[in-house]
Amino acid sequence: MSGKRDGYVSASELARLGACEREIVFDRHRGTRVLPERGAARERGNKAHERFFVESQAIATMGTTRKGACFIATAVYGESAEETIVLRALRDGYLRRSVSGRWLIGAYYRVSRPIAARLEPGGTIARGLALALRPLVRAVEVFMREEWRR
Amino acid sequence: MNGWDMLAFVVVVVGCLWLRKGWSGLSGGTQDQADPYRGMPSELRRAELAYAEATFRSARHRLIARVDRAYRVGDEIVLMELKTRRRPAANVSDVIELSVQRVALAHETGERVCVWAWVVMQSPATQERIAVRVRLLDEEQVVALKARYDALERLPMRELAFARHRSMCERCGHRSVCEEATELEPARRSSARSGARSPKPSLHRHPARAIGLDVDEQRTKP
Description:
The structure holds two protein chains of two kinds.
Chain A: E1 4-5, E2 8-10, H1 11-15, H2 21-30, H3 36-66, H4 71-77, H5 82-93, H6 99-118, H7 124-148
Antiparallel strand pairs in A: 1-2
Helix pairs in contact in A: 3-5, 4-6, 4-7, 5-7
Chain B: H1 3-26, H2 42-45, E1 48-58, E2 63-73, E3 76-84, H3 92-109, E4 112-113, E5 116-122, E6 129-135, H4 139-151, H5 166-170, H6 175-183, H7 186-193, H8 207-210, E7 217-219
Parallel strand pairs in B: 3-4, 3-5
Antiparallel strand pairs in B: 1-2, 2-3, 5-6, 6-7
């Protein structure tokens, strides 16, 4: 049945009930018929959404700067380093979404605060950690790019 | 022309001018296109953006929803949906879409989702935005709509609701077939035989109204 993905009905498909039920049934029987005017409106909507998403990323970055620091990353890479921003994105854009993720954040903060306090910014241990964490940060970056686009 | 006529004339002219203002009148003047916060409600300007373009599923109700934005305000999630519109008004479809998002996000994450959400409307001509707050449906109402959606296939044509506005029919690719099907409905055939005027499709015979749904909106202050 059209409008269903893996047996799931999407929010936008169900929202069509608020417009015209007959169109839903005709679409199922005759296939979707999009007039040029509506196609153009859809195209405009898609472009507006792309822009809105870019703005969302900007807002998220500004927002995470205001929020609590990612202790070890901040001590190792610096407050505004790209690596720190990537790890914050993992925290706010993925881990916060689930109960277990939020528990993990809490546990990490309890453990990382005393470790970060002992790290001397720019010191040997901090530089060694920066190198060791880099592959992990890259993996997180790739994962988060996929996640944003999921 | 007496004094009352003159007053009525002035009221009509002012009303027409106000309507012509459209977007610029509602959005509070020119907006900076580079400002990602333009047209945003003040209560969300400092809020944490929790999700953007994220997909959520409710396995219980077999619903899937893509969220444009969701903010964390206190211990609740507040949803936001972007729409490009010529007329800056939220409608029933927006409420349904956001309500499904609410159910799906709550089921997948276990987070509490606010019953009020924001529809941000963007003018296709000027890119100006205004935000309108709408009250969402509860889970039972969403489930009722899902049941209605699943049943559409089995319902006779006369039971299916028409478009809420005739302008929607003008933009519909099935218009001619729909009009033909409407004329073939038994009630319309019998009225045609008896010479009575064929009743026009009722714009108010809508399932959304049957479950007491209408847009309950509150505009942002410009």
